[in-house]
TrEMBL record:
Family as reported in the entry's similarity comment: Belongs to the thioesterase family.
Regions crossing the membrane: none
UniProt GO MF annotations: hydrolase activity
PANTHER family reported for this sequence: S-ACYL FATTY ACID SYNTHASE THIOESTERASE, MEDIUM CHAIN, THIOESTERASE
InterPro entries: AB_hydrolase_fold (IPR029058), TEII (IPR012223), TesA-like (IPR020802), Thioesterase (IPR001031)
Lineage, highest ranks first: Bacteria, Bacillati, Actinomycetota, Actinomycetes, Pseudonocardiales
Organism for this UniProt entry: Amycolatopsis saalfeldensis
Annotated protein name in UniProt: Surfactin synthase thioesterase subunit
GO biological process, one term: lipid biosynthetic process
Gene3D superfamilies in alphabetical order: alpha/beta hydrolase (3.40.50.1820)
Domain annotation Thioesterase TesA-like: ranges: 21-242
Length: 246
């Protein structure tokens, strides 16, 4: 495959029998999944998605709509569908994984499975307006979720670099109105932090209504970024799902 601004392969595994596509949280970047790629290669070919407006795509304007992001990423994934694909997303990435899964199914190229983490089910919509806050309010929300090093926002240059993509992502996810009855037909695996203030265990377990295929749910100690502390268990779960695609 040629150079693709959307896809990062930190540990290319050309002989793997399945691919894992990782979709970051709001404000996140492909590099967040470098440890996942390292842990699963060469058993899985891990593709980490890089949204516009961050890291090496900083000069590009970030997209502000879930459908735009899902459409663009779906198109970028088409060349990688020569073997089974598992979609994995955390928080905003979970919504994108689901939306991309729906698009791939509609094309007749369904993923092997979808794994969602730290995100409320489409049928458990909450009205939130973080994207309408000033910069300090946006930073306060990120601090509550404990997913970004506070030093990022203490450095004026880093803060200026990070905030536009963060606000665009929050705009995308908070203005998205998913179909409450949307369903996949492939296996759907949901993961949650037991103390997540933005996606309760009940709200994440409700993903069970969004597939006609198999469903599993796992809760872990921790908050919204429970997977930072629970990485070995989450990676083991991903390894199992990927292995089932082989």
């Amino acid at each position: 495959m040629g150079e693709d601004p959307w896809i990062r392969r930190y540990h290319p595994a050309d002989n793997a029998s399945a691919r894992l596509v990782c979709l970051p949280h709001a404000g996140g970047a492909a590099s967040y999944f470098h440890p996942v790629s390292r842990a699963l290669s060469p058993a899985a070919d891990v593709l980490a998605v890089q949204y516009p407006g961050r890291q090496d795509r900083l000069a590009e304007p970030p997209l502000r709509s879930v459908p735009e992001l899902a459409d663009a990423i779906t198109q970028e994934l088409l060349p990688w569908l020569d073997r089974p694909v598992v979609l994995f997303g955390h928080s905003m990435g979970a919504t994108l994984a689901f939306e991309i899964g729906l698009r791939l199914e509609a094309r007749g190229t369904a993923p092997h499975a979808v794994v969602v983490s730290g995100r409320r089910a489409p049928s458990r919509h909450r009205e939130t307006t973080v994207h309408q806050r000033d910069d300090e309010g946006l930073i306060a929300e990120v601090a509550l979720l404990d997913g970004t090093d506070p030093q990022v926002f203490e450095n004026p240059e880093l803060r200026e670099m990070v905030l536009p993509a963060l606000r665009a992502d929050y705009t995308a996810i908070e203005t998205h109105r998913p179909a409450a009855d949307a369903k996949l037909t492939v296996p759907l695996h949901a993961h949650a932090g037991e103390d997540d203030p933005r996606a309760s265990v009940e709200e994440v377990r409700a993903w069970s209504a969004h597939t006609t295929g198999a469903f599993t749910f796992t809760a872990y100690p921790g908050g919204h970024f429970y997977l930072n502390e629970q990485a070995p268990a989450v990676i083991a779960a991903l390894r199992t799902v990927v292995a089932s695609a082989s």
